[in-house]
Amino acid sequence: MTNILFIEQLLNGIQFGTMLFLMSAGLTLIFGVMGLINLAHGSFYMIGAFCAALVAGLTGSFWLALGASLCGAAIAGVLIEILIIRRLYRRDHLDQVLATFALILLLSEGVRWYFGAFPLYLSIPESLNGTIPIFEEIIYSKYRLFIILMGFLIAIGLYILITKTRLGIRIRAGQNDREMISALGVDISKLYTVVFALGASLAGLSGALIGAIQSVEVGMGEPILILAFVVIVIGGIGSIKGAFIGSILVGVTDTLGRVFLPDLLKIFIEPSYATSIGSSIGSMLIYILMALILIIKPSGLFGKS
Amino acid sequence: MKRLTTTLAALMIMTSSSIFADGHQLKVGMITTLSGGGSGLGIDVRDGFMLAIKGNQKISVIVKDDQRKPDIAVQLADKMIQSDKVDVLTGIIWSNLAMAVVPAAVNQGKFYLSPNAGPSQLAGKGCHENYFNVAWQNDNLHEAAGGYANSAGFKNSFILAPNYPAGKDALTGYKRFFKGKLAGEVYTKLGQKDYAAEIAQIRASGADSVFFFLPGGMGIGFMKQFSQSGIKIPVVGPAFSFDQGILKAVGDAALGVKNTSQWSKDIDNPANKKFVSDFQSEYGRLPSLYASQGYDTGKLLISAMVNAKIDDKDKFRDELRKANFSSTRGKFSFDKNHHPIQDIYVREVIKEGKTLTNKIVSVGLKDHSNVYVAECKM
Amino acid sequence: MIIEKLFNKWILFLLIIIPIFGLIFEEPYYITLTTKVIILAIAGIGLNLALGYCGLISFGHAAFFGTGGYVTGILSFHALNEELLFSWPIDIFGSSEMLIIWPVAILVCAFLSLIIGFLSLRTSGVYFIMITLAFAQMLYFFSISWPTYGGEDGLSIYVRNSFPMVNTMDPFTFYFICLVWLMITLFISFKLINSAFGMAFQAIKQNEERVKSVGIETYKVKLIVFVISGTMAGLAGSLYTDLNRFVSPSVLDWHTSGEIMIFVILGGMARLYGPIVGAAFFIILEQTLGTYTENWQFWLGLILILEILYARSGILGLFDKKKNNEK
Fold it and tell me: What pLDDT digit, counting tens, does each position of B3-43 carry?
């Protein structure tokens, strides 16, 4: 195993992590501010990707498609918040889990109904196709580098939004004391809608970004949703910082584990077994990581106990 | 869509009467995937089958959605056998569902015609006189890919598939025919969509070719990412990742890729020409591999009904075995274990105007059967 | 309350009359369907103890349901192939006797829920939901990639395991066996809820701190409830494998956890008969909606959302107006 391969895989892990961050930032914000467990967050990922594919198909522009994914998911977010989610804030976690689980069924099947059963086409722009050398012999995919940059920019943007702006102050106030901020005369229901739409649009954007190199199909949001939950639980629910560090940790662990575990095991056991056992354990690795962290720190790395 | 629902509604009314007062001679139960992930395949098989038996008054069909869940498939099969009293079952897309349903069904004296899945167990030790596979044995297309790799002069292949039984069979099938070395052999997580890590391994391995079996969305992701990676080595795979339904989503990344298939839109025979044009005018889209398999299944069934009644099981079985129908694939016959002997073609993805599709470039394996025949005691 | 009790009697009556109807009119599918409802209801009753009565929101009961299913599948797979299950420290064979399989499945699932409960109960709230999910996902990915027992393809056992003196392949016989198990789990739940121990774990749901302050070790209480709950789900999984004569990783999927949860909530939480009503309603929905439209999951989702938004206390709650108004 060469150093070059290792660094390339590390970058892959970070890229995967930044995508997870876009998903989990919204999830953790929504939980932190409104106390809502939103299983349907993955559906916004899907909706974003489908909006992007639709617009890219009509206009041929990837950048317009990205915009569409943000707007489409945000609009869907606002509608769903007003029609359904709003009524769930005061309910217990159980009702929320169930109602949003039902929303997954409804949205997935709804999208399939409208768009048909086959995957849609969405691809990256020509300008981001191919690879660029980043350091000596290491060459890396332009598009993935673009994703990493987007992820970091959005992370910085979110940081500024939360620490420096009026909306951010309200969000932080909402996380700390929900009763208080409505007493202060902030229109709480409007704030909730805004936060929900923000989370949804980030999910939609990541759906479009990833859909362009993977596939745009019904149900695409579910695997990543579970991972995003793993991330926010590891990071501590409600903490954006925790979500960021958790994302990178999960992304890197998953990627490196998958690639290097079979090779590592080959040192100890017969190669044919090592490949199969290595990939088996590799696919369980992040769940093992999560269980370990929770056993040591029951409320995640940066969570309030 | 509207026409589809009306035909379905009509079918439902037709099948609700269990006495064949309207002259039905045979009742078919179709269990296939119509909702959720992978439903595109089931819809194509169903549409192909329905097109084949369109206007045939002697056959009635019940179609049910298995949601790609084996337990649901088993329960549907129970219902069709126990309550609806069907004579023939068909429709299952996935090997794991087939393994759950087929053995019990054929042991209860029902015929099963497989329009898609061909697990090795059902071809070898577990073969059964009432089980007919109209598509392929699972290994077939991969074997043809291995054969093609030899003729294309590949010496050092990197091969990858998901870590589940069909994935392992795929790599075994390729290795059975491929004579070169392996630059790497990787099992990925089932359902994985991001192949950055694997593509980095391919780049580092020094391979001269890639063989992959990644059905559904997995393959779309792999092809797009591979073409963006700038690695310029040829890729070969079975038709599943390059078929009509999925090509649109892969886009230009698939252009020029060789894939192996027992069917292609441009196979030159009257049956296929009729199928392709009928399918287009009926459903307004190009037919896929799966649609052709559903269609052939329907035609096989009709051919057996010409000279035999379903009540005479032995006679009916003999008629099925003759495969006396004009297949969309041209030459088609059953081997001893009731799996097809057929040509497997090498296709290339091309563009016809704006539509991506396949054209045949050569025959990969001629009159190909499967290696499990010897294990089948029938 | 009276109406609810009457309704409960009706449900039991239906569970018995429908299969008899199926027997008389030779529609064995209705027997099979009722059996499915019963088995899923047993899993629901198990989850209801933890979730409804003790407030432990487990999103990982598929782990127990699936493990019970796989224990059954693996034991009878080895019996079928006449292979040893273990050769160390002593030779252990598989078995296709339900009377052997059940205790093994129960023990394995009890042990598994002890481990998972022991680790998970250190957390609470959302963390608990997610860690239970994580454990179930671990088992799910393991089952998919482990080749010995079929991986993703699953494991067929072709014939049901046997029970002395009767033919379990006969739908009605198997239905009856499951019905007896349903009665047993109902009875155990009933006794538990009304015992002193039951008072303790129901009090934990209301206010854990207060229960602690009277000197009860709440962690231990919760762990015991979790183990009983997981074991019941495991038993249901064992029966489910026999019903289908097949087991596959889909029983370990997180959707299975979600569905068991739906049975509990659809019927009404912390109601003894809730899971039965929930499971029955779910199966009926699936069967009837599926007949009318391919997009039945869309309508299922819509119905579920409406139920949660407007009929919070479940279907049984609709018959219990007084309690509804108090909330």
Answer: 444 444 444 444 443 444 455 689 999 999 887 667 888 99
**Domain B2-136+267-334 class?**
alpha beta
Token pair of B340 as six digits: 């097809």
Distance (Å) of CA C208 to CA C120, C131, C201, C226: 17, 20, 9, 16
Rounded average pLDDT over C33-39? 93
Q: In this structure, are residues B193 and B221 in contact, taking their beta carbons and an 8 Å threshold? A: yes
Q: How many CB atoms lie within 10 A of CB C310?
A: 8
Mutation pick from A118, A148, A263, A286 vs chain B, by most beta carbons of B within 10 Å, is A118
Residue A238 sits at the vertex; the CA angle it makes with A237 and A240, to the nearest 5 degrees, is 105
The torsion of the CA quartet B227, B229, B230, B235, rounded to 10 degrees, works out to: -50
Kindly state the helix (H) or strand (E) to which residue B88 belongs, with its residue range: strand B88-90
pLDDT in tens, A223-236: 888 889 899 989 98
Q: Is C159 exposed, middle or buried (0-12, 13-18, 19+ CB in 10 A)?
A: middle
C89: preceding bond cis by omega (within 30 degrees)? yes
| Structural domains of chain C, count | 1
The residues in A 140-159 lying below 8 A from C, measured between CB atoms, are none
Residue C184's domain comprises 2-36+58-253
Instruction: Give the pLDDT of residue B10.
Output: 43
Global ipTM: 0.83
| CATH 3.40.50.2300 domain position(s) in chain B | 2-136+267-334, 140-261+344-375
Q: Which residues pair with C151 in a beta bridge?
A: none
Q: Is A69 in contact with A22 (CB distance < 8 Å)?
A: no
Helices C171-193 and C196-206 cross at an angle (nearest 10°) of 80
Look at the block and give the residue holding tokens 């589940």: B164
Note the pLDDT of residue C300: 85
Domain B140-261+344-375 class? alpha beta
Whose CA is closest to B275, among B260, B283, B304?
B283
How far from the centroid of its chain's Cα atoms is residue B168's Cα? 18
- The per-residue pLDDT for B14 is 40
Residue A42 exposure: Cα atoms within 13 Å on the Cβ side: 23
> A-chain residues within 8 Å CB-CB of C265?
94-95, 98
Per-domain boundaries in chain A: 13-219
Q: How many beta-carbon pairs under 8 angstroms link A with B?
A: 115
- Amino acid, single-letter form, for residue A153: L
